[in-house]
Design brief:
alpha/beta, Rossmann fold, six-stranded mixed sheet, four-stranded antiparallel sheet, globular, binds adenosine-5'-diphosphate, binds magnesium ion, binds zinc ion
């Protein structure tokens, strides 16, 4: 199988670190913050690969480092160490995204990546209309023709089941579920090769959550787009992700096929997650 992304030995810490950090932090110690120096080891030696077209789940409790990992892949947070290898679907030569300069990284993010945040204000300009938000992403990806941008926006609104007549309305007039659809429309605008989803249904009522998950499933089916799906909720992950990574205190403690993890969790922490999801 061809891979799209390979994350190799990726690290991120918040703080200066000290000689005692390694011994005092991690899943066995049950904390990611060093009691000696206060540094948070939010992502330690993360390794995984992402096949083209697959949905990979990242599950773990709040504070386990999921968003930190996702932001590094989104090139919006620099890694301290490690590689994020990207193999373009159209050619074989892999590149290390961590080595890109600022300009190339921005271009890559706008053109090849789409991200949906838990909080819509992080992903949307709340003072722009829906059309303005999608146009912003397309302009950054160097779309220039106003008519084409407008047509693409209408197409995206249809695809994400947003009423097309609301193209000029501002986000603050939309419900929570619709705001997530607007974020998804914006994220998909440039036809990215990788969609990053960070707790996209966490703030929603269960019925609304189910409909947004249905939409994501349909998009994955229609576009065959590769996705990294982050959630603290194994129930959400199991509905969409073929394979899953389990994070605890900044480290990956288990990974494998989601069905296998659900049926036969190996790590005590995963066993806890599974039993509370049943
Ligand atoms: N900018 C930051 N500065 C310091 N600590 C941070 C920062 N961002 C996140 N953290 C800490 O890093 C750890 C991982 O956070 P995060 O990646 O947001 O986890 P998750 O998304 O799994 O809840 C947490 O302990 C959090 O408090
Ligand atoms: Mg998070
Ligand atoms: Zn320390």
């Amino acid at each position: 199988m061809t891979w799209l992304l390979q994350v190799v030995d990726l690290h991120k810490r918040y703080g200066p670190g000290c000689p005692a950090c390694a011994e005092l932090t991690g899943p066995r110690q049950g904390r990611s913050q060093c009691p000696r120096c206060g540094t948070v080891h939010a992502c330690v030696a993360a390794n995984f690969s992402l096949q083209a077209g697959e949905v990979l789940g990242i599950v773990g409790e709040s504070g386990s480092g999921k968003s930190t990992l996702l932001q590094m892949v989104n090139l919006s947070l620099p890694a301290d160490q490690g590689q994020i290898l990207y193999q373009p679907p159209e050619s074989g030569a892999a590149v290390d995204l961590c080595q890109m300069n600022g300009y190339s990284a921005r271009h890559f993010r706008n053109d090849r990546l789409g991200i949906v945040h838990q909080r819509p204000e992080l992903g949307l300009n709340m003072h722009f209309s829906v059309g303005g938000n999608v146009a912003e992403k397309l302009l950054l990806a160097e779309w220039r023709h106003v008519g084409r941008i407008r047509a693409r926006t209408s197409e995206l609104m249809r695809q994400t089941e947003l009423p097309p007549e609301r193209i000029d309305d501002e986000p603050h007039t939309f419900s929570g579920g619709m705001l997530q659809r607007v974020q998804i429309a914006k994220a998909l605008a440039s036809r990215p090769s990788l969609l990053l989803l960070d707790e996209v249904t966490s703030g929603l009522d269960l019925s609304v959550q189910a409909r947004v998950l249905d939409l994501i499933r349909r998009i994955q089916w229609e576009e065959q787009i590769t996705m990294l799906l982050v959630s603290h909720d194994l129930g959400v992950i199991r509905q969409l992700a073929r394979r899953t990574i389990v994070m605890k205190n900044g480290q990956i403690v288990e990974s494998g096929l989601t069905d296998q993890i659900m049926e036969d969790p190996q790590h005590p922490y995963t066993q806890l997650l599974v039993s509370s999801a049943l």
